[in-house]
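Help wanted!
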Amino acid sequence: MADRYVELKSVSKSYGGVPALTAVDFRCEPGRVHAILGENGAGKSTLMKLLAGVIQPDAGTISIGGQTVRFSSPREAAEQGTVCMFQELSLMPHLSVGDNIVLAAPRTRMGMIERSVYREAREALDLVGAKSIPLGARVSGLSLSERQLVEIAKAVFRKPKLLILDEATSALTSELVETVFGVLRMLKEQGVAILFISHRMHEVDAIADRISVFRNGRHIETFDVGARTTDEIVGLMIGRSLEELFPPRRAPVPDTAPVVLNVSNVSWAGQLVDVSLAARAGEIVGLGGLDAQGQQQIMHAVFGVLRGVTGRITLNGRRLNGLRPPRVKQSDIGLALVPEDRKTEGLIPSMSVAQNMRLAVLGRAPFGLLDLDGSSEARLQELIERLALSYGSLDDPIATLSGGNQQKVVLAKWLVLSPKCLLLMDPTRGIDLPTKAQIYRLLTDLAAEGMAVILQSTDYEELIHLCDRVYVFYRGSVAKELTGDHLSADALIAASMNVHLHAGGQA
Amino acid sequence: MTDATERTVTSRWLNRDRVSVLLIALGCVALLLGGSLLYPGFLKPGYILQQLQIAAFLGIIATGAMLVILLGEIDLSVPWTITGTAIVVISASGSSNPLIANLAIPLGLCLGIAVGLLNAIGVAVFRVPAMVWTLAVNAMLLGAAVFYTGNSRPNGEVPWLATLAATGRTFGIPNAFLVWLVVAAITIWVLKRTVYGNYLYALGNSRRAVFLAGARVRLVIVATFVLAGVFSSFGAILLLGYTNQAYQGMGDPYLMPVISAVVIGGTSIQGGRGNYIGTFAGAIFITLLSSILSVMQMPPAAREMIFGAIILVMLLVHGLTNKKEGI
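Answered by r_m:
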């Protein structure tokens, strides 16, 4: 058991002539958490797919415990104890949580699933801290972070020997991340080898024993955690420092600046309770808190996605209650929403870059005809340059772009409408550092131009370094508003768990 | 490297839509050549023009079906929308009241609009799967038609305009085909150049993303089903002019060929992909195939089996190419 290490020797893989991995030597040992760091396109995902048997190397060998192996399918890799959690969630939405977990590795007796395995599924869920999720709940009714917990429980249930987590914590709040890390530490004690991919440096610091940095498909360096500073690691990854990630602090927005978005006493279906908040022109206002405390719903309520919202929502004095998305995006109101899930809500993956960019501006075309004078085309071209979008051809499917560039397209889609108020739902989730830095700079610039920016985020660093004010949500209402010096990681976490205030109310 | 670039350039030009159209055009030529082995008359212009005339009826009805399929839905109410329209038009045209008689064709189109609205309400408002809802609407239309005609052939007159449009010729070219060309040109323009067309493709791919982009999703769905109803009725009026009579079940043999024409033309049955030229060629292909099968004295039951098999094969082929593209 102890020598069940995984080793790659001079492994290369290329796609259609483009090298994804070049002569990589890599080794990970049981009972250790090994973090893989690198920008998008550095070869991390390719490495994972090789280990999981999704793809086969062009050259070189993969061995487990000294035995050369060649997986021709993920199933064979799974039989060897390799369990993989990819970025994309792979749960079946209409099945129950229990079925999703059990079907990952069904144990059958004469073709029937044994009942006892559901008890094990329950144990797996409890283990990852998802005690509140019933086995019978439908996955479609769960929030994104609950689904991610189920996904992790599914991996634990399969009793892995090599567990690969590819951005598996990206949708979780810090509190849940801590729970998951507890599980990982326990698995580690049991001798499981864990490969951990994340863009969040503090998570890597918290959990990993060793770190390997990849850049441009090459294995740059491997070292123990603590052997290098964060700045040095970032330097290895991208060749620039962490201070450059966030733009310099802006001067506070004066109280005399006009209030753009005003939400007062808004409630909805028990999930929003008496929420009031405001955003001035030029402000970046953060919405934080644990997952699914109402931050997402308030965004949807403002954008007109929800029906039956009570209370008052105004934008530049205009009442928005009851108006639907096609109305609120018109130029006289000027709202825009970057949704939470890029792949299903923000974009249409099978359509081209250009088609995706035009998706929002279309509704404004005169007489229902496309762009007679080409003015919005010109504006789109400007935005492509401003966002430094890198793409092959505008006619390529958007799925061919990296996650960061896809998010830029979602932004461009809305910015072409010149909105007065921009709602962003976790816009930098799963995006590499340089693109994050670009998006942060863009948001700061937009605020400087007088736009009111509402940023809902699960990343505390983002809320602290980028926002003027942060509203922390708890159980559907605003538990605390943090400004200026009060805006710190500790304060955010305390407010998220509602340490000071009485529970926000039962609906 | 240059090799890879060249390959991407070729693959970009030879995208799936173009390959489908190319294949189907080759299929038409193969059918004509194969048919000419059986009957030398197949390659004569007279025969080809006649086939184009018959293809026009199918093609116009398939236009509506294609819009609905692009949306990711399906319209199974086509057969009795056709029969119903034919009955309404022939009865109204035979009316002793001259006003009603003159309004026979608009009345027929109104029936198509009404059926389309009914379909749209079920799909867009009540969110019933289109396959079930439109099938139920089809059954209701059948019942209404039988109830109205008392299960006998409806009497009346065929409007002269319908006869002229369906059977007349201009410079030797069948009017029906010319009408179809106009319909085709407008459809291509609408799909490419209007907001409706662009949102239609987008909706077929992802309803949620389009909704969150602030599009009027319901309006697009309603418009699509109404257009489908209108195209079915329009086709029915031409068909009425061609057959010079209306009868129970005159629309029944159209459902499978219409869907076959759309699917053969490369439109994805899941919606969001396809172009009208494919449907155009698909309608011609189905018409030629049908003609050859009848020349070979294949019974109608066998023809239905062949159309069904074609749809299945096309779905398999498209399913495989989708997998290869990893979508």
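OP: Thanks! One thing I noticed: Residues 46-315 of chain B form a domain with the ABC transporter involved in vitamin B12 uptake, BtuC fold (CATH 1.10.3470).
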